[in-house]
Amino acid sequence: MLRFLKTCGSLECPIPAGPLSGSTGEVTEMPIYVYEVIEEASSENEGVPKEPETFEILQGIRDEPLEKHPTTGQRIRRVIGNVNVAGLWSDMKTASRLSDKNLADKGFTKYVKAGDGKYEKKTGKGPNVISRD
Length: 133
Known about the structure:
about 130 residues, 4-stranded antiparallel sheet, 3-stranded antiparallel sheet
């Protein structure tokens, strides 16, 4: 299963509509791979480096790397890219640090806007409602 996500350069790759789902209908998580077009050497552009055209494809982790561009048929290769690791300041870690339970354990009070000038307490010590009146 291939899904184009984004194109870079002048290649026009279709972006399919609809969610990515497995055979049972659940949304699946698959890695995003970056591929670049392998330009054939030509005598007229010798000595002038050209930025290769790249595109991203959502592809199963066990799938073999592609060798030809699915739309144009040009030769391509998979590019090694950045790895996303959930560190101390990642979105996942920040969400757990700012959870209601963690904030209350650390002595903070969390208020959420409930209307025009009115805030309701969600966790911690303090008044249940704060308003500008």
